[in-house]
Amino acid sequence: MKPHETTMDAGALKRPRRWHILVFLLPALIVYTAVMILPLIETLRQSFYNTVDGQYGFVGLSNFKVLFGDPRWAADFWNALRNNFVFFLIHMVVQNPIGIALAAMLSIPKLRFSAFYRTWIFLPTLLSFVIVGFIWKLILSPIWGVAPFLMDLVGLKWLFAPWLGRPDSALIAVSLISVWQYVGIPMMLIYAALLNIPDEVIEAAELDGVTGWSQFWKIKLPLILPAIGIISILTFVGNFNAFDLIYTVQGALAGPDKSTDILGTLLYRTFFGFQLQLGDRSMGATIAAIMFLIILAGVSLYLFAIQRRMRRYQF
Amino acid sequence: MTRTTIKGLLLASSILGSAGLAHAQDVTLTIESWRNDDLAIWQEKLIPAFEAKNPGIKVVFSPSAPTEYNAALNAKLDAGSAGDLITCRPFDPSLEVYNRKHLADLTSLPGMENFSDVAKSAWTTDDGKSTFCVPMASVIHGFIYNKDAFDQLKLSVPTTEEEFFAVLEKIKADGNYIPMAMGTKDLWEAATMGYQNIGPAYWKGEEGRLALIKGEQKLTDEPWVEPYRVIAKWKDYLGDGFEAQTYPDSQNLFTLGRAAIYPAGSWEITGFNTQAQFKMGAFPPPVKKAGDTCYISDHTDIGIGLNAKSPNAEAGKTFLTWVASPEFAEIYANALPGFFSLNSTAVKMTDPLAQEFVSWREKCKSTIRSTYQILSRGTPNLENETWLESANVINGTDTPEVAAKKLQDGLDSWFKPAK
Questions:
Q1: What is the domain partition of chain A in residue ranges?
Q2: B185 touches chain A (CB under 8 A)
Q3: How far does the signal peptide extend, from start to end residue (chain B) (predicted)?
Q4: Which residues of A touch B67 (CB under 8 A)?
């Protein structure tokens, strides 16, 4: 039994104009335009404006020149971008494989209480990032934390360190907190994809002697690849827009020594200001514009280069 | 919670709505503030005292979170939805608000004569011509210590740098107490409670601060690097995992009696008085050698101004005149021991810890935090950078010399001293 590749049937049939589609789309379109598209355009516009000698006006690309040309702005920006990539990579190599593994385990038919596990693993995703940040700050606190206490019980206290306060471990710690919170999303999506694989395919594989691990690698994994692609792109967009968790756990200065500063926190500090630092809307908008371009590039790469080549199967 | 509040409001408005009609002339003033800790004091003491004397004016205190205050306030002012009275941060954040014509000029406000020029400096334009906020209070830096612990270990209060470290060493050797409660996680503790606390003794207070603004001294000069060398030595006396210790952690460590010394600002007094179960004392930042003049950071921290677009400007001015009066100073200073009145009239305070702090004004020279006036106007922001580097120095990420160089380079990139 060979799966067929889908072929899109270009509708050759002439149909009457379906106005109701437009009518139904309109409310969403209006709301989306008002709260997303217009602010986005306004932000992009602002990135080309700045105050020069007290006069607010069009300055062309000079904001971008400052961002990339001025050694301090550039250092801050590249530092944030690099941290952001680390943040994303940790999600890709930890969160998504664990999500896939959890989904694979949940879809074992013999597993008992699977609904229970599913709910509990998904639960942190529903929590507010403020709560998650606060809980983990307490868990990892070297003074009252549960982590040093529990590690002490099993004689591993020497392994404990004030991870959130060290420049070399803070970013990893914060990324893992985020992974803990969001691992439910890849799990759910993959789980749904796995359930979509028809039993006949699995049975046929078993008849051919493909079972266990090799069944997962050779049959199931190729079938859930599109779902993995979607998850990757969701992770990418989510991570490059991230801000909230870092802000609640490490504060707006994203310490220590800017080691957890990602584009979102840099944007926040620049745009809104912090403590004695006054907000700089033009530079903030410039950073926002770059973030938009990065995300746009990533999504385009996925849509045009990867998704098109991906084989889809229909049963 | 929100829902019950809304229900309560609806209920209140339905019942009291008719009562409100009788006072149709009433003016309601709203105060914007970052001091959400002070909500109770405003509602229970200050506002009733004012309203009793000024029938027809109602006052609502509406604070927001400290870290979001500046950004939220600017957004509200731009949108025209800010309150009538604006609590002023010292120096540039407020000056900027004034320059954008959001704060009214209060130079001629009755009651302004109760304040010295130094008290008004934080809310006066660079040319000294206009004052736009009524000074409310300053905070003094120093160290609060656990008296019981000191008695138990037979320690005396240190006055010099050497004695200070000797005391820390003894507490550490004893092992019952963490010598000093401070963390670097929140960054600002290291800068505000560390560098700005002990620093004035090395850069000689106002002398060094003004020399820095005039460009006669640099942050890489010895008086500015040495305090960094001193706080770098603090590292050994902080609690386990101080790198991840937050500000509330430090407060709790001290008030629970687990730490002996707390590098403090006087604003802690109210909280510590209610939390701590032991006797507390305070000592000023130690001097370098016995006999040296001591310097304290007596930082003008909080003022209050009038929204230039307020429809209730007259009532607002009445309120501000009252804020400038000795009566307000006395209620405020006693309700919030640790926030010291800037009023020229001496205020009687009952809290012993607050008395101790304020007594240093007589024997030591006062200054304000070095980064606040003018020097934090550009990008990179010197205050934020100082937070970062102070934490780096204590964490050992940067040496004092490297930290000072980074700060000076940052400052040089935009700051041109007025010659």
A1: 65-314
A2: yes
A3: 1-24
A4: 251-252, 274-275
The pLDDT, as a whole number, for residue B419 is 52
Measured over the CA atoms of residue B406, residue B407, residue B413 and residue B417, the dihedral's sign is negative
Fold for the domain defined by B140-298+366-412: D-Maltodextrin-Binding Protein; domain 2 (3.40.190)
Residue A252's φ and ψ, nearest 5 degrees, are: -70, -20
Chain A residue with minimal CA distance to B100?
A54
Tell me whether domains B2-137+299-349 and B140-298+366-412 share a fold: yes
- pLDDT tens for each residue of B332-344: 988 888 899 888 8
Specify the CATH number of the domain B2-137+299-349.
3.40.190.10
A with B: how many residue pairs have Cβ under 8 Å apart?
118
**B246/A163 touch (CB, cutoff 8 Å), yes or no:** no
- Amino acid at residue number A267: L
Query: A123 to chain B nearest CA, in Å?
Result: 23
Q: Tell me the sheet residues that pair with B27.
A: B57
Put simply, whether the predicted model's pTM sits higher than 0.80 gets the answer yes
CATH number of A65-314: 1.10.3720.10
Residue B23 pLDDT > 80, yes or no? no
Question: Residues B270-275: contacts with CB within 8 Å, 24+ apart?
Answer: B270/B37, B270/B336, B270/B337, B270/B338, B271/B37, B272/B144, B272/B353, B273/B337, B273/B351, B273/B353, B275/B251
Contact between residue A240 and residue A291 where contact means Cβ atoms under 8 Å apart: yes
A275 CB within 8 Å of a chain B CB = yes
Given 3-state DSSP classes, what are the helix, strand and coil percentages for chain A, each rounded to the nearest 5? Answer: 70, 5, 25
Report chain A's mean pLDDT, rounded to a whole number. 89
